[in-house]
């Protein structure tokens, strides 16, 4: 049956009707394979491109790399799309808009977080206005790490998504996709703000340094360089 | 950058100011100064920027607003206004329509209040944001539900 384990993603009333018809299981299996083949090879993309990853996405979709070769076409509207590619930093103000567009996409739908900003916020993570990873407010199927990932890596992510769609339809996929763990890539020397291991004296020292900037930002002077 | 003669004479005779970069002008005369500068050709409103300075022994807690005008192709003039926190500065929207959104941005991020501004709302941050994040006394780990 063309339903994944949760029974939600591909449910349609016609399936439950057809299941009751005798002798149709063979045809259903064939039709199911056809549907899987079709949906995994015609991933229409809604590019949620907010920053530099969007440039790489444009490069991937234009002639040199050619997204069309795997059946993916960027569409300008969420209502005709299957995949949302979130390419770029998502701010607190943008996040409700992204969620709204995501909700407008018809099922079945998938999401790719492209680039480290969309995955975790990366070095904008602690800024007041940046969402620390889009998976805090919407489901993500495939993570494409990189800053920005080049078109080849985006293609690898799309192929990964195709594999995932096929595996899910065959009932082989059970684990959720995990946010990639990159030890050593960004491990700050000092624990970040909000980390329970961070000492209170660090916050005080940082606030003290900020509050005692001279007028004109006098922490760095030309005379200090010599 | 050399100061053009007509600019220097306007500043000295009309406003009793010395040419500088930037000129510091009193809040009560800033609209008049902008209108006079526009009159001698400084018609290009380059930018409006603001910064927050915490209280020191000499000065109260205040923000500074700097405007920069250009007379194409190469002359430019900058003037700044000091605004103590809790007080307002006149808006330049009546002189330069382009100041509208830029002053909204400064209000949004730094918290400078522009009197007589036609539409002083937040422009970059969400409408329900609390505080002005580019102020020096804004805690950098302020939580914003539900993402932080």
Task: Describe, in plain words, how this protein is organized in 3D.
The complex is a heterodimer of chains A (226) and B (148). Chain A has helices spanning 13-19, 25-41, 52-61, 95-104, 116-120, 151-169, 200-211; strands at 45-49, 83-87, 110-114, 142-144. Chain A is an alpha/beta fold and 226 residues long. Chain A has a 4-stranded parallel beta sheet with strand order 1-2-3-4. With 148 residues, chain B is α/β, with parallel strands linked by helices. Chain B has a single domain (5-115), classed as Beta Polymerase, domain 2 (2-Layer Sandwich). The chains are: A alpha/beta (226), B alpha/beta (148). Chains A and B meet through α7 of A and loops of B.
Strand order of the largest sheet of chain A: 1-2-3-4
User: What string gives the helices and strands of chain A in order?
Assistant: HHEHEHEHEHH
In total, the number of strands of chain B is: 6
Instruction: Compute the average pLDDT of chain A.
Output: 79
Which fold name fills CATH's third level, the topology of chain B?
A: Beta Polymerase, domain 2
CATH class of chain A: Alpha Beta
Cα(first) to Cα(last) distance of chain A is 74 Å
Number of domains of chain A: 1
Our measurement of the CA-to-CA distance between the termini of chain B, rounded to an integer number of angstroms, reads: 47 Å
Q: Can you summarize this structure?
A:
By secondary structure, chain A is an alpha/beta fold.
What keywords describe this structure?
heterodimer; A: 226 residues; alpha/beta; Rossmann fold; 4-stranded parallel beta sheet; 4 strands; 8% strand; disordered N terminus; disordered C terminus; B: 148 residues; 4-stranded mixed beta sheet; two-stranded parallel ribbon; 3 helices; 26% strand
